[in-house]
Amino acid sequence: ARQSNSGVYLEGKRKVRKKGLGNGSGENSIFFLHLVEQRRLRPFFVGFATILYTALAAFALLAFREEGMDSRISFLVYIGVTAFSMFFLTMDNPLLNDLQQPIFYYMPGSSYKKVLWSSFSPMIYTMIDLLPSLLVLAVLAKIRLPLLFIGFFLVLSFYLIYLSAQMLAFWLMGTIKGTIASLVYFLLRFILLLPATALIIAAGVLGVAGSAAWYYFFVIAALIVNIVIFLSSSLAGRQQLRAGLNE
Question: Where do the structural domains in the chain lie, given as residue ranges?
């Protein structure tokens, strides 16, 4: 074998890239591995979640428009219903599968980076799933671009909340198998939803009744809370990787 100028090892007619799968190296190879798997499962990018989120956006806006409700309230309803739908759609995801595989614990590299890269891989397709519904919101509700942008990341952050519940469940129980571990897992999913849910309700009650500044404040606060919960839970996931998997 010989090495070319581009850093690619040539063995006959076959190229073996030095950096690994999808130009990944080290821990981020997990990210590229999951992307390849997602492309295999969804070659055209559009999936059931894409259709569901778009339908929910259209339903929320059209239903509440007939009642003469403020579009900002409709937007919050869309966020809530979409986040609730994610509760069921995230039951099976790459991070959950990785945490149940012994090789994920044994492979070299930073435990924290492995958790983060495994968490980010499904986010790409979740973003794709949400984009059509945001276009519906922009066209039908004429929601301002800053709020649309914030709302997009707020909905996306609920995916992080469900990943956080998985990491905390593994940290507390060492596994997710068994009746007690499963109950702890589902309980954590509900508990971690409460802070952002309370802030979204506050945005609907106080923000719409008062100034627009309060509305933006509570929506942004909900986004920040979800991100902080995820980052904190990632530390628990790192500790679990160091402790090992309980069979």
Answer: 30-243
